[in-house]
């Protein structure tokens, strides 16, 4: 997987606490470049039943997953924030792919340069042995 979405219910303390086990599972199995988004669902109930303030979720994410991990709140019921969430994940995936391609190009260029230096060194060594 290149991305993971961890979802908790903003009206449920238990749901939020359960994220710890999912974070532990991700840590065991994820690669360093996994894009993780933490999502608080049921935003439509925020005004009456919110149990988890977004600031608490953001603090948890920074401590558990680092600065590069994002927190979003959405309402799957009202389709609020879902498209934005997936657009952000897609944007990060495209940026990551571009970074990887740039690194591959740089590595290929460095390999060519190293090969050219090695070839030149061998030619100099042959020229030196021929003139001896």
Automatic annotation (TrEMBL):
GO molecular function: GTP binding; GTPase activity
The PH domain, residue ranges: 1-31
InterPro entries, sorted: P-loop_NTPase, PH_domain, Small_GTPase
Matches recorded under Pfam families: Ras
Keyword Nucleotide-binding attributed: yes
Keywords carried by this UniProt record: Nucleotide-binding
Top-rank taxon: Eukaryota
Protein name: PH domain-containing protein
Source organism of the structure: Lunasporangiospora selenospora
């Amino acid at each position: 997987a290149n991305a993971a979405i961890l979802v908790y219910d903003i009206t449920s303390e238990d749901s939020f606490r359960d994220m710890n086990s999912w974070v532990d599972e991700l840590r065991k199995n994820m690669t360093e470049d996994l894009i993780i988004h933490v999502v608080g669902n049921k935003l439509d109930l925020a005004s009456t039943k919110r149990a988890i303030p977004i600031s608490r979720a953001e603090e948890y994410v920074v401590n558990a997953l680092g600065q590069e991990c994002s927190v979003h709140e959405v309402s799957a019921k009202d389709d609020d924030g879902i498209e934005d969430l997936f657009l952000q994940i897609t944007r990060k995936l495209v940026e990551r792919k571009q970074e990887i391609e740039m690194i591959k190009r740089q590595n290929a260029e460095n390999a060519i340069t190293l090969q050219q230096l090695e070839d030149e060194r061998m030619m100099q060594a042959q020229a030196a042995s021929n003139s001896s």
